Amino acid sequence: MVKVESQLWPSCATATWLESGADLSHLVESFADVYSQGDGELAVALHAAGWQDQGSGMLDPVVEALHQLRPAKDSLDDTRLAVAALHQATATESVYGNAFRRSAGLPARRLN
Hints:
- This protein has 4 helices and no strands.
- It is mainly α.
- The protein is globular, with a radius of gyration of 15 Å.
């Protein structure tokens, strides 16, 4: 997962995304692009082998940009939870996506 943190995330999902205007659909595509290249499987395998992330806040710039788009009364923690859920869904899509869609009665393959 070092590859994801040190090489892809800062440039792909943070800097490039922020430069493009903090568009939510572009963020989803950026996350999906990173994990569709095998990094989802790598993340799951590392976790299963006992690896634990020692850092935190890797996506703080994303959280902050999205939070600024929300009404002032909205919770920052809710924004963090939404970003974490998106990150989790895209990271595990390649490994668990088909099964999770089937469990909800959807076709196994990804819907476009």
